[in-house]
Amino acid sequence: MSTKKLILLRHGQSIWNLENKFTGWTDVDLTPKGCQEAKEAGQLISRCGFNIDIAFVSFLKRAVKTSQICLQQIINQEIDVQQDWRLNERHYGNLQGLNKTETAMKYGDEQVLKWRRSFDTAPPKINMNDSRHPSKDSLYKNVDRNLLPNSESLKDTLIRVNPFLEDHLFTQIRKGKNCLIIAHGNSLRAIIKVIKKISDKDIVRLNIPTGAPYVFKLNNELEVTNDYYLPRQEELGK
Questions:
Q1: Alpha helices in 140-237 (DSSP H)
Q2: Is 133 marked active-site?
Q3: Cβ(216)–Cβ(227) under 8 Å?
Q4: Burial of 73 (0-12, 13-18, 19+ CB in 10 A)
Q5: Residue 35 gets which letter from DSSP?
Q6: Which of 11, 91, 133, 184 is catalytic?
Q7: CA 238, CA 141: separation in Å to the nearest integer?
Q8: Phi, psi for residue 38 in degrees, rounded to 5
């Protein structure tokens, strides 16, 4: 039975991660720390000897830049890079751009926690006429306007990601391709929920750190036989 590999990587620290803001589909850049995290992630993948055939990346700058920096560290490999908007972060609706602490002071900790961590509660929607709505962004000019979100729960994000899994990721893994996905905390949580068959209740407790390659080994039925984070560079010598 052949073992297939999938690596998930959340983008490096972004500017709004650092500023503690709801980011969602807002196209912010990486911080210098985020760039370093992306570089170290690529070095880890390279040192562990993983051969990557295909890298799937979201449309958002923080993931794209992470992929560029990361893949520069993986030498002597021809990696097919494909972008897919369905790997974008969960859309935080009208919360995007707001400071998380200030939002909690305004709406209460319990309400904000529900927006952030529940499986099926979406934040307040952004208006279709708002300049921040994805339909106003040229990045999505080739995407059906009716598919573009104005707010999403994790459940909504999972529904968005599912066609990518069925039509692209699982197809490539079944062909024996080793895949790398560089995306975001919530889109990756949605993917992990599917491949590890995590319940709606338990998935809300799952957190994914920035810049940490998460490896899955899968059998022919795409069942997880092992999963683990690659050790950080400072841990490799221990």
A1: 154-164, 170-174, 185-196, 200-203, 233-236
A2: no
A3: yes
A4: middle
A5: H
A6: 11
A7: 49
A8: -65, -40
Tokens representing 50? Answer: 């993983």
How far is residue 237 from each of residues 38, 52, 155, 166, measured CA to CA in Å? 20, 24, 40, 39
Mean pLDDT by 10-residue block, N- to C-terminus, for the chain (238 residues)? 87 97 96 97 92 96 98 89 97 95 93 90 94 93 95 97 96 94 97 96 92 94 94 58
DSSP state of 137: S
- Active-site residue, from 37, 89, 133, 184: 89
Cβ-contact 215, 229 below 8 angstroms: yes
Our CA angle for 66, 71, 77, nearest 5°, is: 165
Which amino acid is it at 62? Answer: R
Beta bridge partners of 226: 217
Active site residue 235: no
Q: What is the DSSP letter of 199?
A: -
Continuous segment of H or E residues that includes residue 229: strand 224-229
Between CA 57 and CA 43 the distance in angstroms is 18
Distance (Å, whole) CA 87 – CA 186: 9
> What pLDDT does 231 receive?
85
Q: Give 176: exposed, middle or buried? Use CB within 10 Å, 0-12, 13-18, 19+.
A: exposed
